Amino acid sequence: MSLSPLALRAEIAALLPRLRRFARSVTRHREDADDLVQIAVERALKHLDHWQDGTRLDSWLFRIMKNAWIDEVRARGRRDEVLAPEEAGEHVGFSETGSRDIRLSIEKAMGRLPEDQRMAVSLVLVEGLPYKEAAEVLDIPMGTLTSRLARGRDALQAMLGDGDLTP
């Protein structure tokens, strides 16, 4: 059964929190993440006819977002712009200092990962995509994805286990 364009728009709207979370992981900057989500959703809405019924809508949107981010990084490189560092104190909704500190440490550790590992870890461990879907989103072989995940997990464990990160 094919979804109507209106139903697809509603499904995309329901995915916005996940898209924003992935964008924050990729960009490491709140405003860049918001812009990236907007670009990805605009592209998705413009090209709804390209989505194939029976495939995962979230994977399709994550792929659009990944490609949009690649485009943005290339454009910034041409303009010689530098990504701004993530601002401190922007995490709303954490009332406990301990959980906030843990979250900040994890975000800092994620930010120190190379981009390829950060994207793999974010898609599989944070967004819960199956390996096959994540590999398709990133347009890499499954073996490459598993290697990036293993290296990313090891690096995160080393950074967080050694306690060398302080928020």
TrEMBL record:
Transmembrane segments: none
Record-level GO BP terms: DNA-templated transcription initiation
GO molecular function, one term: sigma factor activity
Parts forming coiled coils: none
RNA polymerase sigma-70 region domain location: 13-79
Record keywords, A-Z: Sigma factor, Transcription, Transcription regulation
Domain (RNA polymerase sigma factor 70 region 4 type) ranges: 104-156
Domain of life: Bacteria
Family note: Belongs to the sigma-70 factor family. ECF subfamily.
Name of the protein in question: RNA polymerase sigma factor
